[in-house]
Design a protein that fits this description.
By secondary structure, the chain is of the alpha/beta class. It folds into four domains: 29 residues; 344 residues, TIM Barrel (Alpha-Beta Barrel); 230 residues, Rossmann fold (3-Layer(aba) Sandwich); 95 residues, Sandwich (Immunoglobulin-like). Helix content is 34%, strand content 19%. The strands form five sheets. Strands 1-8-7-6-5-4-3-2 form an eight-stranded parallel β-sheet, with helices on one face. Strands 11, 18, 19, 20, 23, 24 and 25 form a seven-stranded antiparallel β-sheet that branches. A six-stranded mixed β-sheet has the order 13-12-14-15-17-16. Strand 5, helix 12 and strand 6 form a beta-alpha-beta unit. It starts with a helix and ends in an 18-residue tail after the last strand.
Length: 742
């Protein structure tokens, strides 16, 4: 009988995994993601993008530039490593100067200013400012709705802006506008984005399927949801109308931008187009990066909410020019910023020129950092042109609907003052959990990629990953769950921190338990309510109203927090559920931690000893075979906070060693280091196997062959080595994804 039961079970399992097509035909959401314009990318060819914007470029924004644009100014820029420039909505008056000094440039406000970023152009008085905020929080229409007439208007501006510049051989990219969004930055916004008739209804039919569209009574706001958070159980939880509205706005917005990008390509086929002033992944403003990165060809995004790691991961072949903003703080920080962003695959900086001069005399710090900027644009930047990222077999899952639901749960503590909530990248649970996972991996010497929900639904989890981490992945569709289970069943390891897929992609609680409960071998009780989660008062780990202006992670994690702290040093999510549950699923392993990693943000600040608590999470990553192939030998507390990134470039591998400190940033820009270490230390880079033809790319010195190389490292700079061939323990080459069948 035992053999009969086993055979029957195996047959049933095989039948489930043999029928992905049938499921696709029955699942309108899966069909939507695979066929909708929402996920169709604009042109993103690698060779084309590299030809337009090939290497590291430092582009001053001339806010307070006293030198003018004569020969002396051009020579000053080049002598100090400023090899780029910018123009503003045209720029025919400056183009001859740019061409003469061979300055790669981008054009800002190619689509004008006032429609995509509507705020400044309205020039509101204080009273009018408040009136617009009130409109944003309500259920009305965007001050300037997007529609066919708006698109025609902006296309006319784009055509006029480009006409005088497209003859320049030094144009690198066009920015539609700066700090854009369907609201105001990522401030809580509830209004509708378009007055186009039937646009929302038709979109609902697309994602739910014809005949399955739920009844919608008007357009709602958070005021319609927030009071219910104390009443709902998982089974009765339904934030779908609000989340669908935000998701529709994101889709309409990014499609609108994609159409403008494509139009720009028609006017000038040789030049990428996108925008600058990009914000963190967020519920508001259009910052679903699964959509963003399919609709643009150039971006400057502020490194808030770890947006740079998301962009780097979702940038196909690292082809599209992604740059960062630069604000001066001090000389060591400026040098560190240059190396940090180069090591993470950035293509340059847009620098805010403010208080750089006394009259027309450059301040001394410019001469101090000039050698670094020159080295970046003359030596290491060209070396990195076309290089592609090497990961260590770990994928982090990007679930945008989980970010949306996270905001709904986080803002519960604010009550009616949710309208004033800002600083999502320092408050939001999804943001802080992402940060903790990223830094736990980096501090362990393990590199990763983000993979987004659309790519997983379309293609499955790529087989070159050993581990899939689900950070704060509260929401999952059935289509995503099938692909994740297929990856695990085929031999992958899946690790979730807490409440994975307990809600669906619309923000509705799952009445039968979490979408992955069978894989994890657990049962999330659908009767759970707010009192069963974390500190009982809120659905979230931290009281983000009481901690709105917190000054330390320790404060954030302790003030008004009554969560159960596990012996590992991390807070339990479901209070009555065990922690660190490991389940065998097919050939793979599924681990549900039922712990939030947020405390790691505090432990990391405390230093190397406290940060060792990450082991409770990372032991499962390492057990799956995702281990570093290069690290600092005998690294101790004084070296803590180092990071290593690796890139493949032709027949060679490039290795960066640099510091990964805390980063301070706002929605207006930044990216400066906090607690940056300087000084020089002697370290040894140890590799898992023998290397051939190792070279110090900064000094040009040949280091020969071997497994370990002693180098001097200045902590706010980078060590840059290269060697022949591939890493000694590289991850397997990309191959066909696991097939979904559950």
């Amino acid at each position: 009988m035992r053999g009969v039961r086993l055979a029957a079970a195996l047959a049933a399992s095989a039948a489930l995994f043999a029928a992905p097509l049938a499921f696709a035909q029955q699942d309108p959401y899966e069909t939507y993601v695979k066929t909708s314009k929402d996920f169709k990318p604009v042109k993103q060819d690698k060779a084309w993008a590299l030809k337009a914007f090939p290497s590291w470029t430092f582009m001053p924004w001339y806010a307070q530039w006293p030198l003018g644009f004569d020969d002396a100014a051009g020579k000053f820029q080049l002598a100090n490593g400023m090899n780029g420039s910018f123009t503003n909505r045209g720029g025919a008056d400056r183009i001859d100067w740019i061409n003469k000094f061979h300055l790669r440039f981008y054009m800002d406000h190619t689509a004008g200013k006032g429609d995509l970023h509507q705020w400044d152009s309205l020039n509101p008085s204080q009273e009018k400012d408040k009136a617009i905020l009130d409109q944003m929080h309500g259920n009305g229409m965007r001050v300037r709705p997007l529609n066919a007439a708006m698109k025609a208007k902006l296309e006319g501006i784009i055509r006029g802006s480009i006409k005088d510049l497209k003859g320049s051989p030094w144009r690198g990219a066009y920015s539609l506008d700066d700090e854009i969004g369907w609201g105001h930055f990522v401030h809580p916004s509830m209004w509708q984005i378009t007055d186009e008739p039937d646009a929302y209804v038709n979109w609902l039919k697309e994602i739910y399927g014809e005949g399955n569209v739920p009844k919608r009574d008007g357009w709602i706001t958070y005021n319609d949801v927030q009071p219910k958070l104390q009443e709902w159980s998982i089974a009765t939880f339904d934030a779908s109308q609000l989340m669908d509205q935000w998701t529709f706005n994101d889709s309409y917005w990014n499609n609108f931008l994609g159409d403008l990008v494509t139009y720009s390509n028609g006017v000038d086929p040789a030049t990428p187009c996108g925008y600058v002033g990009g914000q963190s992944p967020n519920a508001f403003g259009g910052y679903d990066y699964a959509k963003v990165m399919r609709k643009i060809q150039f971006t400057e995004a502020y490194n808030a909410g770890n947006s740079q790691s998301v962009i780097r991961s979702l940038n196909p072949h690292n082809a599209l020019p992604n740059v960062t903003t630069f604000f001066y703080k001090n000389t060591p920080d400026t040098i560190w910023q240059t190396w940090y962003y180069l090591a993470n695959g950035n293509r340059g900086m847009i620098a805010w020129v403010e208080k750089w001069f006394d009259g027309k005399t450059p301040k001394p710090w410019i001469a101090e950092v000039a050698p670094t900027w020159k080295e970046a644009n003359e030596k290491i930047g060209p070396l990195m042109s076309g290089a592609e990222w090497i990961h260590d077999g770990v994928a982090l899952y990007y679930s945008h609907t989980s970010i949306q639901l996270g905001w709904i749960l986080d803002a519960q503590a604010h009550g009616k003052t949710w309208v004033n909530r800002n600083g999502e990248h320092v408050l939001g649970s999804s943001h802080q959990v992402r940060k903790a996972w990223i830094n736990m991996l980096r501090d362990e010497g393990i590199q990763f990629n983000w993979i987004d929900y659309a790519n997983v639904i379309q293609n499955g989890v790529p087989a070159d990953y050993k581990v899939l981490v689900l950070p704060h992945t509260l929401c999952l569709s059935d289509a995503e769950a099938r692909q994740i289970k297929a990856f695990c069943h085929s031999g992958g390891t899946v690790i979730a921190d807490y409440l994975p897929g307990v809600w669906d992609q619309h923000g509705k609680g799952r009445a039968a338990g979490g979408a992955l409960d069978d894989m994890f071998g657990v049962k999330h009780d659908p009767a759970m309510k707010v009192g069963d989660i974390f500190g009982e008062r809120f659905w979230t780990e931290t009281d983000q109203d009481a901690n709105f202006g917190y000054t330390s992670y320790e404060t954030l994690m302790t003030k008004n927090n009554t969560s159960i702290k596990d012996a590992s040093g991390f807070d339990k999510a479901v209070r009555k559920m065990g922690v660190n549950h490991v389940n065998t699923y097919g050939k793979g392993k599924a681990i549900l931690m039922n712990l939030s990693p947020q405390w790691y943000n505090a432990y990391r600040i405390a230093g190397g000893e406290a940060s060792a608590k990450r082991e409770v999470f990372l032991k499962h990553v390492k057990a799956a075979g995702a281990t570093p192939w290069v690290r600092l030998q005998d690294a101790a507390h004084k070296e803590f906070g180092y990071e290593i990134t690796c890139w493949t470039q032709g027949d060679r591998t490039i290795v960066f060693l640099f510091s990964n400190p805390e980063i301070t940033v706002t929605e207006l820009g930044g990216g400066n280091a906090a607690g940056l270490k300087t000084g020089k230390v002697a370290v040894t880079l140890a590799f898992a196997g023998d290397l051939k033809d190792v070279k110090d790319e900064r000094s040009g010195k040949k280091l020969g062959d071997g497994k370990a190389f002693k180098v001097d490292w200045t902590r706010n700079e980078a060590v840059v080595l290269s060697f022949a061939g591939q890493p000694p323990r590289a991850t397997a080459p990309a191959s066909a994804p696991a097939k979904a069948g559950l």
